[in-house]
Specification:
single chain; about 375 residues; alpha+beta; Tetrahydropterin Synthase, Chain A; four-stranded antiparallel β-sheet; three-stranded antiparallel β-sheet
């Protein structure tokens, strides 16, 4: 009996071991299959990663810098290319389209005091240093200005390496905050360029007078600021070229805008009166010159006439002299007659006195001739009599 039990127990053990062995075989085979599948998948992914993930296309208005192990390797501006993928190589896109930055550093904290005068006619309170921005001119006046600058990245390598660019250059500048959560400043290429613009504005404004900046020579002032900005950015060698610098706002402090407007109005009126005076002077000068020319012309004509008459008389007397020498009495009588005739031709009233045969003379004079009367006066008198 005991032998039978032992045999039965041994048979069970053999059966159990056979089942366990076949299960293990199946598990091992399954794990091998999974391992081979995963290895193949990993291999495919590695092949795909090293083959296709290194391809990139340079988009329009964009430059691409390739860094290899953190060092500059190549610059691409068009077409598609392949590089070893990260972490061997890193592709950095840099925009090359024109970009614009604005600066209100030298404006009041409440810019509407200047830009929206209709709703802020009083001009607000006095300026607070450290809060309100302002500039000092050469004649010790205060003004406010707002600027904008358009620039383009022309040297992507210098821009990426020297211009404090963030890891992705197309992103905004990095913003810093204090423990209270208040913004304390920014760091990046736009901040650098804005500071260059502000520095140029500060330098140039200190050389100019307020009246020239705001009224008389605004364009010359803006041009000088632009020239200095171009020079300073070129000296930095950051791969940026300035296209335009624009003066958006130019204004005295809000509290004095009314006074400046009155000065402007007075200067405009003075300019108008000055222009009128110049026009009147020009007109009178032209009239005087015209009259002068007329007088000179008349004098020349009179001179020519007198000279011609004297020459004619000289010629006449030179021809008459031989005749006078031949017969003086006849020539004298002829000259006397001609002279009397000329004199009588200009006389208004002529009286002829004749000698009668009896030796008497008769003279008749009309001492009180009737005065000439205007016909209109006679007509009015008749109408009044009626």
């Amino acid at each position: 009996m005991e032998n039978d039990n032992k045999e039965l127990t041994e048979a069970k053990k053999i059966a159990e071991e056979g089942v366990f062995s076949s299960g293990m075989d199946m598990l091992v085979k399954s794990l091998k299959a999974v391992f081979i599948l995963l290895s193949s998948l990993i291999l495919i992914l590695l092949i795909w990663f090293f083959t296709f993930s290194g391809f990139f296309t340079v988009r329009p208005d964009t430059a691409v810098i390739v860094l290899q192990f953190g060092e500059f390797k190549e610059l691409y501006t068009d077409d598609w290319h392949w590089v070893f993928p990260y972490p061997v190589s890193k592709v950095v896109e840099i925009p090359t389209t024109p970009q614009t930055i604005s600066s209100s550093t030298y404006m009041p904290a409440n810019e509407k005091l200047i830009t929206d005068r209709k709703n802020n006619p009083q001009g607000g309170e006095t300026l607070i240093p450290g809060v309100d921005g302002y500039l000092i001119t050469a004649d010790a006046c205060i003004i406010h200005t707002s600027w904008s600058m358009t620039y383009r990245i022309t040297g992507p390598k210098q821009y990426y390496e020297n211009c404090l660019t963030p890891e992705l250059p197309a992103e905004a500048d990095t913003v810093f905050f204090n423990k209270k959560g208040e913004q304390t400043g920014t760091r990046g290429p736009r901040t650098l360029l804005r500071n260059v613009l502000d520095n140029a504005v500060l330098q140039i404004t200190s050389r100019w007078k307020v009246n020239d900046i705001i009224f008389k020579k605004t364009n010359e002032y803006r041009t000088e600021v632009e020239s200095l900005v171009r020079k300073q950015i070129a000296d930095l060698n950051i791969g940026v070229s300035v296209e335009t610098v624009s003066l958006a706002v130019k204004s005295p402090p809000p509290q004095t805008i009314g006074a400046f407007n009155e000065v402007t109005s007075a200067e405009t009126q003075a300019k108008s009166e000055e222009d009128k005076a110049k026009a009147y002077a020009s007109k009178q000068k032209a009239l005087a010159e015209s009259e002068s020319n007329v007088l000179i012309s008349e004098a020349r004509n009179y001179k020519a006439k007198v000279v011609a008459e004297v020459e004619a008389d000289a010629k006449y007397f030179s021809l008459l002299l031989p005749e006078y020498k031949k017969n003086p009495e006849s020539v004298t009588v002829a000259l006397f007659t001609q002279t009397v005739s000329d004199a009588l031709s200009n006389a208004k009233d002529k009286f002829i006195v004749n000698s009668l045969a009896s030796g008497k003379q008769e003279l008749r004079l009309k001492l009180n001739p009737e005065p000439k009367t205007d016909k209109n006066v006679i007509t009015k008198s008749k109408e009044a009599a009626k």
